[in-house]
Amino acid sequence: MAFEGLADRLQSTIKKITGKGKVSEQDVKEMTREVRLALLEADVNYKVVKDLIKRIKERAVGQEVMDSLTPGQQVIKVVKDELTILMGGEQSKIAVADRGPTVIMMTGLQGAGKTTTSGKLANLLRKKHNRSPLLVACDVYRPAAIKQLETLGQQLDMPVFSMGTEADPVDIATKAIEKAKEEHHDYVIIDTAGRLHVDNELMEELQDIKAKVNPEEIYLVVDSMTGQDAVNVAESFNEQLDITGVVLTKLDGDTRGGAALSIKAVTDKPIKFAGMGEKLDELEAFHPDRMASRILGMGDVLSLIEKAQTNVDEKQAKELEEKMRTMSFTFDDFLEQMGQVKNMGPLEDLMSMIPGANKMKGLKNAQIDEKQITHVEAIIQSMTKKERQDPSLMNASRKKRIAKGSGTSVSQVNRLLKQFDEMKKMMKQMTNMQKGKKGKGMKFPFM
Amino acid sequence: MGFMDKLKNKFQKSEEEVEEVSAKYKDGMKKSRQTFSGKINDLIARYRKVDEEFFEELEEVLISADTGVATVMDLIDELKMEVKRQNIKDSEQMKEVISEKLVEIYYGDEDPKTEKLQLQTGQLSIILVVGVNGAGKTTSIGKLAHQLKSEGKQVILAAGDTFRAGAIEQLDIWGERAGVDVIKQTAGSDPAAVIYDGIKAAKSRKADVLICDTAGRLQNKVNLMNELAKVKRVIEREVPQAPHEVLLVLDATTGQNALNQAKTFAEATDVSGIVLTKLDGTAKGGIVLAIRNELQIPVKFVGLGEGMEDLQEFDAHAFVYGLFADMLEEDE
User: Fold this and answer.
1) What is the 3-state secondary structure (H, E, C) of A4-72?
2) Where does the record place the SRP54-type proteins GTP-binding domain (chain A) (predicted)?
3) Which pTM was predicted?
């Protein structure tokens, strides 16, 4: 397929330069060509790509190849750093008005997902921020748009303000705010009709609504599959309305979402939220660093590396390796390990971050049950210190006690003991294997 | 003389008819055309020589129109060969070579007849409409229903989008506007069952065309794609040789992902044509090139506005004429 990740693309170029001490200009030129194609295939605007490539070239030429990274990894790192800088930090804060209800205006092209996002945002405000939002149906043009918002309101058990299709959107918005004040809603979410950024008449309508209701937030809702035109759309909405943020929708699809980068580059407005599914709770804070990896098409492997670096203490890791080799790995170590992994985030997320993980046998569709981990923790914590050091002490009455203490069953305890034993064996095999390869260590599949 | 004249001749043949069609295209695609051919003209004006830099910029112009990256790379390679073969040095000569190559991709070796909607005469034709969320399926169905109805056909719509809030009501309103019946069940019911009802109704009322709406779905949702395949199987079972058309509705602002969409939907439902919507903005719909080139799926309709009449049969000649109108007029 045409959609290769950057890592795949760089593969052949990298082969040529491995073993070199320095990244030469020619190397960088070849690699940036691949980077450029990868970005273009991800729908990043070509002008944005051009600027980026220029900066990457400047940074990458002449850099010494670090011991810890292959030249390819190094270029990827530079690219990713640049992308992350461009995307900015995470900013999912929603403004609050000094007095009266906070007004949020939802704008965008037809079919971007404004109405659904309005519903999701209302849900988020209530659930996470304990707010009481009022939804306002200002899309009087698209057939059944009001009905759609009303249905969403019903599903959420949330009030929707509408005045039918004959009313003027500016009027609807004004009256809605009066009503919100009366009924003590602290947020008002105005769903506007989809419109083309070149449709002057309808763009003026948005300006009129803005002037009248003075919103704290104006969000531009953008389909993450948008191509090169994202720049024009974002630029023109921003010029005419001075938007305060962007919501990127349909990110649960398989688009690489380069539009995110283009929009950020031309408007310099934060992307605040990402729509991750059709359900009403599937609106998430936008993670610029994850997006950078996604655009490059390499899973979240870099976030994974970074997470591993920050969460796993190097000294601990060395000790662990020693223990693995000498087979003196105990339940205490096991517990510690689990704690570290858990610090890195939900396990399922971790799995999905590993490129190729879903191709691995057994891992495909593996449902990782976080509850099970809690059980395992409980079982280990119910063991005595001695038992943790030496599982061979285990007998029927000890197992019974542990099961009782952890609120599990003896068979669950048995299962864990068996798994632990197998794990130890596997670890020994693995460390032996690694010794054979002579310190090459774990390699990520993409390098 | 060359290609430009050939193209022009095509339009002069039946001037009245052409003027009407191309006026609509010219109008709807004004923004696209200005940026696209304007850029090519600008490029040619700035580079007298055809060199590496020229090609690099040409590449950008093509990519800025959302033409598939792979397609652009192939095209550039071919153009480079052509330049060598014809020993072209002056960029002015490139104009014709570029347009000729672009048109070649558009037309391919295909029979232009495939661009027309394939409908049965004297018996029921079924059109299944599929696509991602927000592409414009329901709106396109409304417009298509209106168009077929005004051609004197009896049309029935089946409200197969039972998932999205307000979708059934939306199709209902379009049905009213176009003056055609809408077969529906309540929200949340099985889409295959609605379609089945639609077929029954279409048969008993002796309708000419049944258009089936479906819920928007992202192509990487396996379960939802399976559901779509099931809907298609129901149609196949009830009416042999149906669906006669499976139309994929594609938002013209979509970038490279459109190729993925076309590919995956084609696998699930054997897509026979594309409806390219929202072409009245600044989006250039260049992805049409890539889809035709890589998947051989023709575009059958383009959406050029929000009105009921704003669905046009895709006319590759007019489309190309629209893209290159500036260049043609300049020649005169």
Assistant:
1) CCHHHHHHHHHHHHCCCCECCHHHHHHHHHHHHHHHHHCCCCHHHHHHHHHHHHHHHCCCECCCCCCHH
2) 270-283
3) 0.75
